[in-house]
Each structure stands twice: as structure tokens, then as C-alpha cells.
UniProtKB/TrEMBL annotation:
Pfam families: Peptidase_S9, Peptidase_S9_N. Residues 12-25 have a biased composition (Low complexity). The keyword Transmembrane helix does not apply. This is Prolyl oligopeptidase. Its EC number is 3.4.21.26. It is an enzyme of class 3 (hydrolase). GO terms for cellular component: cytosol.
């Protein structure tokens, strides 16, 4: 579609600029499945294919597809009873296999896998493009385990085409068949929500029950208790939130001796209430709120409660700092005690990345200048027969009886993740290490014991040649003097500036307290680094790299700080000789798509090309589109006075037809029911109407992830990398 054509089309008449927020000539593109809108999408997709197609596109698509379909990927597993389950996709299984093996077999180079559910076969049988959303398996009671009864009750979540909305269907792990509704099987119709096990004949259900039962964000407002063999309409109401809540759900802990029912009420992002529910389903039902700040996260394990603070808290004369991790015996806390133990307190360079319970221990993952450190904390526990001192190699004991030791794994500039193998019965943990140039490794170790080197179970292959490449962490100053870290990956002579300027991609996110950490990507390595590109990642404010304060520094009216941070990193890449603006590209997705939109409209002079993926762009309309209302705690409410600052970072309204902009690629998915595809569609149409250099690609499937299978993911990746290389490289790719 040429610029001349769009300007003669009454639907796309060029509006006055800056765009009047009270009018929107491109509103028709918000009709997601509307034929007129889809005709426009098909036309833009055809244009994208024509512009980007060629030898480079074909080569990149093949290289990426080989990585995604590789049989040498690490098959990560979850322990369920004696089996270890894995979900797997490859060239022969595009939708994927849910399969299982034993630990002894998993330790071998070629495990024997038993297929539990074949999504490709299921989709063909049912005529549906199912996308895996996960499964939940009911833990048998101690009596059932003693009797040798197998784990058989599973709830499988499947999405049509990759949307957030999905269905839940009960699955029998013994017969490997779905349990039909006429046989008493639990089935939840397509909606945002879910089911969670209470016992073998009961679930909690939170879903769309009809008019008035969903929140403005499109999530469940009610949770009910549903008994097998009864109609969903007869399920008993457990809790109903208000019209302005974000999400209501419930769950049961099945740890023997510590069975508890909890109701979860998300008021908005960063504000939650958790209730202890007793007597559910009887006349004695009662809900007791766990009395912690709404901004805090609460977690329970056996007799312990953990509280992770986002704001300062003074419950009984003692102030606990935001970013801290606190512990207390749960029953004592509910009885009124406020005797809390500080397990972690942040420093100017450290933040809490996560926690993982095992049977007897708590692994605390800390970020120090965006690098992982692991600590093992052991609570006082009379049920532990073996003395604590014999279970830790080194450590210190606090007045509360908690013991701390260090868990040394990983290395410089590597990301380390930890997950419990069996949180109820064992102290084993999976340890995953990865880095920009270091393929992922999966290891197994036991925490709390005299430390030995973790047992390496699986290692991913190298998908690209890393010889001559290096990774470094750098820091630069933002406009207000804040120290901002970023990573740079590429050939040593390029990242040093000796052989520049290099085609460079700068990636960022900067939102929702999400930290961006180093990780291996065969796709980036093959499609970009091996061709002589440099890859950089900016750890800007709005993220979680330095805890809640780093996030809160760029909320709402302060959002500009995230954009100033990113622009500072872009300038530093130029100042250090890595690249020049004409050869510097940037990419962001989702909230990062909003970042990309603001780089496009506020800092166009810094970039030679920009990719805007599954983005928010119209900040006047965002809260009225799909899940947008749930993000007002992050951005603000455009229907109030907040619009005065929101309009300052609403790319759709900042666009100026008279201004020069770098070439831009917009990508989204028709099936994205989280961030409305109308954002990308309307911005592309607005820019096309002004004659700007715009490429647009919308995948019909894929949801917010953009792709529903490896073939679609490879095509999307080829679109991205070909666009960047064509725009940023002055010499043809080999």
C-alpha cells in the first residue's frame, strides 16, 4: 500500500498533527477480526514479504528454525511422583509433546520418553490449533501414596492459537486420555481464568461465569468451589471481588500436615490481598486476611510465611525497608505476633531476584549489579533430625535461629536460576546457568549438605561460533546522573570500537519490575553476531534489576526516566566507538514496545532502525483495550488528570508528520488478547499515511508471544533480523 493510496482512502485520511486525542481516524483497525481490518493486515503482510524476502531472509529463517527444532536442546523437566515430565517441540512435533521419563533414564544421553499427550495429533483430531499452556497434577494424600496409588489427576490448559484465553480439561495420567464431562471430568470453557485442585473430586474455578463476572481487565472476578459430577452453574461461591479488582483466584496447599486454602485478590498490579479460607463449602466458611501491606508478596511453606516488601513497613514499631525479605511462623503471625526475621535487606547495588523452598531450606537468589549470588537459609526446624551444623559447610546463625551458607555455582556474567525438584519431600534443586556466550547447563545438587560440585545432567550445544566474541558489562549516566548498567556482546574488535562502527542492536524493556538478565540465544548468535553485528541490552529503570525502588523510579509521571536511561545507553554506544546512529537499531516488545515507540517519536535522531513488537502505543485508549485496565498502576489512568503526563509518552499522539523518523518495523499478532493489536495497526497506518518508511507484519496466530510454533517463530525472527541487517549494514551479509 503506497502512501498516495492511503491518503486518498477516507478511512486513513491524514489527521492533524499532533493527533487530537479526542478523535481517532484509525479506530476501525481496533476491530481485531473485522474483515476490513484483516484486509489491511493481509496487504501489509504481503508488502513485508515482498520487501524483506530474498536470500538473506531464507538463510536466517533456516538458521533459526534449525536452532528451534534442534534435538539437542535441554529437555527441562518437572518431577511428578516417580516420573519427570517435559513439554517438547521439534520439527516433527510443531505443537508439541507432553512426555515423561525416569530420573535414571533422564541422566542418560538419550532418555526413553513415554508420550503422554501429542498436541499435533490432538489438534488434527479436533480441528483446533492448540497451544500448550501447562498442566497441574494433584498430589495424592499420604494414605493414597502409602497404598501405592499413582498420580493420575491432571488439569491441562490449552489455548486456541496462543491467546491468553484458554480452556482447562481434566486428563488421566494412567489412561492418558481426557476425562469427558459426561464421565464427570472437569472442563472449563475458553476464557481467561483457570482451575486448581482441592481434592480428587473438587476444584476451585475462576473464569467467565457470565455477565458481570469479569473485571475491567478481562480477568475473573469470582472464584467458586466446584464438585465433580455437578453442573458448573451449581458451583458454590467462595469469594467475589469488586468491579474494579483485577483478578480473583483460589488455591490449596497439599503439603501433608500443612493443608491450607487461600483466596487471592489482585486489586491491581503491585496490590494484592491474600486470605486464609477455612470451612470452605460449609456454613462455617470464613476468610481471614493475612495482615501485610497490599504491595507486599506473601508466600507460605509448611509453618513459615515469607513477606517480600515493595514499600517500607512498620508493623510494630520496627521499620522494615522496601525490597527486604521477612520470615515469621505463620500461625504465630495470624495469632497476632509481629516477630519478624529479616532474611534479606537490599543495598545500593543488590536486590532480591527470587526465592526457592526445598523441604528444609530456602535458597535466596540475589542480584548484585545484575549478577547472581545464591545463599541457602535454614530455618529452625525441630523436625530436622540431623543437626544444622552438619548440613552446612560454612554459615552464620542469626539470633532467630536461621542459618546462612553460600551456594557457589555459575560464574562471571552468567545468570543462575534455581528450582526445587520436590518442594515437599526433598532438598534437591535444579540449577540452570546461562550467559550471552555460554550455552545453558542444567545441573542437580542438594542444598544444605556439605557442598559438592553440582551434577551436570544436560548441556545445550553451541549454536554459533563464539571464538573472538566477548561480553562485557558497562555503566553510563542518565540525564539525572543515575548510574545505568548495560551489557555489550560482539566481536572484540567491534565492542572495543577499534573496527567500528558496527551494526548494533540495543534491546530493552524497563517495566513491571522485570529484570533483564544475560542468557544464551542461538538465534541472536546465528542471525546477528556471526554476521558481524553487536548486541547490547540496557538495564533501565522501570525494571527490577535493583529492586522495587528501581522500578518505582519510572512509574506513571516518572516514565520519562526509563526513556532517558535508554537514550543514554544509545549515546554511550556511539561515544565509545561501537557504532554510529545510522547503524544503531533498537527493539522492544510489549512494554518494551512502548519504549520503542518513544525512542521512535522522542529520540529518532539516535537510531537507524527501530523494531516495535506487540506494543502499547495509544496511551489514551490502552486502558479500554483488552487487559489494558490492569496496567494503570504502571502507567496511570488516561481518563483522569493522569492524561497530562501520559500524553507525553503516548507515541500515537507524539507522532509529527513533519518530522524525520528512522525506518520502523511493527510486529504483532491477531491472537494477542493481552496487548491489543490495534496499537501496532493504528500507529503503522498513521505513519504510512504520512509517507514514512514503515514495514508491518502481523502473525494471525501466536498470542502475545507472537508465534504459536517453531515455524512461525523462525519466520518472525527472519523478519526482524533481515529488516535490521538491511537497514543497518553497509555491506551485504555473507
Amino acid at each position: 500500500m503506497s502512501a498516495e493510496h492511503t491518503q486518498t482512502d477516507p478511512r486513513t485520511a491524514l489527521p492533524d498533527t499532533p493527533l487530537d486525542p479526542a478523535t481517532d481516524p484509525f479506530a476501525w483497525l481496533e476491530d481485531v477480526e473485522g474483515e476490513t481490518a484483516l484486509d489491511w493486515v493481509r496487504e501489509r503482510n504481503a508488502h513485508s514479504a515482498a520487501v524483506l524476502g530474498g536470500d538473506l531472509f531464507t538463510a536466517v529463517e533456516g538458521e533459526v528454525r534449525e536452532v528451534l527444532d534442534s534435538d539437542d536442546k535441554i529437555p527441562h523437566v518437572s518431577k511428578v511422583g516417580e516420573h519427570y515430565y517435559n513439554f517438547w517441540q521439534d520439527a516433527a512435533h510443531q505443537r508439541g509433546l507432553w512426555r515423561r521419563t525416569t530420573l535414571d533414564s533422564y541422566r542418560t544421553a538419550d532418555p526413553e520418553w513415554e508420550t503422554v499427550l501429542d498436541l499435533d495429533a490432538l489438534g488434527e483430531q479436533e480441528g483446533e490449533s492448540w497451544v500448550w499452556h501447562g498442566a497441574s497434577v494433584l498430589r495424592p494424600t499420604p494414605e493414597q501414596l502409602a497404598a501405592g496409588e499413582p498420580r493420575r489427576h491432571a488439569l491441562v490448559d490449552l489455548s486456541p492459537g496462543g491467546s491468553d484465553s484458554d480452556v482447562t480439561r481434566e486428563f488421566d495420567l494412567v489412561t492418558k486420555q481426557f476425562v469427558a464431562p459426561e464421565d464427570g471430568g472437569f472442563v472449563r470453557a475458553e476464557a481467561k481464568g483457570g482451575l486448581s485442585w482441592v481434592d480428587a473430586d473438587t476444584v476451585y474455578v475462576f473464569t467467565d461465569f457470565g455477565a458481570g463476572t469479569m473485571t475491567p481487565s478481562g480477568y475473573p472476578r469470582q472464584v467458586k468451589r466446584w464438585t465433580r459430577g455437578t453442573p458448573l452453574a451449581e458451583a458454590t461461591l467462595v469469594y467475589e471481588g469488586t468491579e474494579q479488582d483485577m483478578y480473583i483466584s483460589a488455591s490449596r496447599s497439599h503439603t501433608p500436615g500443612f493443608e491450607r486454602d487461600l483466596v487471592h485478590r489482585a486489586l491491581r498490579f503491585y496490590a494484592n490481598e491474600t486470605y486464609l479460607a477455612t470451612g470452605v463449602g460449609t456454613d462455617e466458611q470464613a476468610l481471614t486476611k493475612i495482615d501485610v501491606p497490599d504491595s507486599a508478596n506473601v508466600g507460605l511453606h509448611r509453618e513459615w510465611m515469607l513477606v517480600r516488601l515493595r514499600d517500607d513497613w512498620t508493623p510494630s514499631g520496627t521499620t522494615y525497608r522496601a525490597g527486604s525479605l521477612l520470615a515469621a511462623p505463620f500461625d504465630d503471625f495470624m495469632a497476632g505476633s509481629r516477630d519478624l526475621t529479616v532474611l534479606f535487606e537490599p543495598t545500593p547495588t543488590t536486590s532480591l531476584a527470587g526465592t526457592t523452598w526445598t523441604r528444609h531450606h530456602l535458597v535466596v537468589n540475589v542480584l548484585d549489579d545484575v549478577k547472581n549470588l545464591l545463599h541457602v537459609l535454614t530455618p529452625p526446624d525441630a523436625s530436622v533430625v540431623e543437626p544444622v551444623e552438619t548440613r552446612v559447610s560454612t554459615g552464620s546463625t542469626s539470633d532467630s535461629g536461621w542459618v546462612r551458607s553460600d551456594l557457589s555455582v555459575g560464574g562471571e556474567l552468567l545468570t543462575v536460576g534455581v528450582g526445587a525438584v520436590d518442594v515437599v519431600d526433598a532438598d534437591d534443586v535444579w540449577v540452570v546457568t546461562t550467559g550471552y556466550l555460554t550455552p545453558s547447563t542444567l545441573s542437580l545438587t542438594t542444598v544444605g549438605a556439605a557442598q559438592e560440585a553440582p551434577e551436570v545432567l544436560k548441556s545445550a550445544p553451541s549454536y554459533f561460533e563464539a571464538a573472538g566474541l566477548e561480553v562485557s558489562q558497562r555503566f553510563t549516566e542518565s540525564d539525572d546522573g543515575t548510574r545505568v548498567p548495560y551489557f555489550v556482546v560482539g566481536r572484540a574488535d567491534l565492542v572495543s570500537g577499534e573496527s567500528g562502527p558496527a551494526p548494533t542492536l540495543l534491546w530493552g524493556y524497563g517495566g513491571f519490575e522485570h529484570a533483564i538478565l544475560p542468557g544464551y540465544s542461538g538465534t541472536i548468535g546465528r542471525a546477528w553476531l556471526e554476521r558481524g553485528g553487536v548486541y547490547a541490552v540496557a538495564n533501565i529503570r522501570g525494571g527490577g534489576e535493583y529492586g522495587p525502588a528501581w522500578h518505582q523510579a519510572a512509574l506513571k509521571a516518572d516514565r520519562h526516566r526509563a526513556y532517558e536511561d535508554f537514550a543514554a545507553v544509545a549515546r554511550d554506544l556511539v561515544a565509545t566507538g561501537v557504532t554510529v546512529p545510522e547503524r544503531l537499531g533498537m527493539e522492544g516488545r510489549s512494554n518494551g514496545g512502548l519504549l520503542a515507540g518513544n525512542m521512535l517519536t522522542q529520540y529518532p535522531e539516535l537510531f537507524g532502525a527501530i523494531i516495535v513488537g506487540v506494543p502499547l502505543l495509544d496511551m489514551k485508549r490502552y486502558s479500554h483495550l483488552l487487559a489494558g485496565a490492569s496496567w494503570m498502576a504502571e502507567y496511570g489512568d488516561p481518563d483522569t488528570a493522569d492524561w497530562e503526563f501520559l500524553r507525553r509518552y503516548s507515541p500515537y499522539h507524539l507522532f509529527d508528520a513533519a518530522r524525520e523518523y528512522p525506518p520502523v518495523l511493527f510486529t504483532t499478532s491477531t491472537k494477542d488478547d493481552r496487548v491489543h493489536p490495534g496499537h501496532a495497526r493504528k500507529m503503522a497506518a498513521l505513519m504510512l499515511a504520512a509517507g514514512k518508511d514503515v514495514t508491518y507484519y502481523e502473525n494471525i496466530e501466536g498470542g502475545h508471544g507472537g508465534a504459536a510454533n517453531n515455524a512461525q517463530a523462525a519466520y518472525m525472527a527472519a523478519t526482524h533480523w533481515t529488516f535490521l541487517w538491511n537497514r543497518l549494514s553497509t555491506t551485504p551479509a555473507a
